[in-house]
Amino acid sequence: MNLFSNSVILLTGADGDIGKAFIEELLNQNVRKIYITGINIEKLSALASLHPNNLFPFLLDVTDSNQIKDFCSNHTDINILINNAGIELKSNFLNLKAHEYAKLEMNINYIGVVNLTNELIPTLKSNSNAAIINILSIASLYVIKRLSTYCASKTAAHIFTQSIREDLAEDNIKVFGIYPGYVDSKMSSDVEHNKISPQALVKNICNDINLDFYDVFPDPMSIAFKNSNKLTIDYI
Fold this sequence. Notes:
Layout: E1 8-11, H1 17-28, E2 33-38, H2 41-50, E3 55-59, H3 65-74, E4 80-83, H4 98-126, E5 130-135, H5 148-169, E6 173-178, H6 198-210, E7 215-216, H7 220-226
Parallel strand pairs: 1-2, 1-4, 2-3, 4-5, 5-6, 6-7
Helix pairs in contact: 1-6, 3-4, 4-5
């Protein structure tokens, strides 16, 4: 089954490296329409000009409740939400600005995800083949001390993902959690590590989703982490 074929998708963070890779792969998966959203409308408009029949750019700051509410109330054809927008400020907790960094990361990586998802749920319930895809991280499941404020925000988003999955199954809405390792993107430009390309990452994500894998580890680093003794995903 191809979840994406003929779907209408809301993609946040479409102006970033992983977002652009998602656009390319989703078009290969024969989606009908993608609302590409982010905070750089010029970049989004340039991307949309390449596929004007499929890509529709919108300014959407996931920390702005009014923008979220307005967008969701005016776009009721969406059946797949991809919560891809994210920020990593590279801070541990023993930092005089840790509270500021933690607040911004929480607002974008967690609270924005919760807000947008809840605003869109009535639309997803009304459309067939509905799904929510949350781009998380192995940092959702493991403490990386130099990124500890980021880990906290991604852990919160992981708990949100796991907690809504069973509830939304009753409404035939699938919920996927994606747990990548390091990606060769601007966010990880300071890391010297074997990194997967955004294009390969997104292709693996879509392939695993089409196989109905609800917890997706889409690269060698995350697979090794999954197979180690460091990880347990479970809930009561």
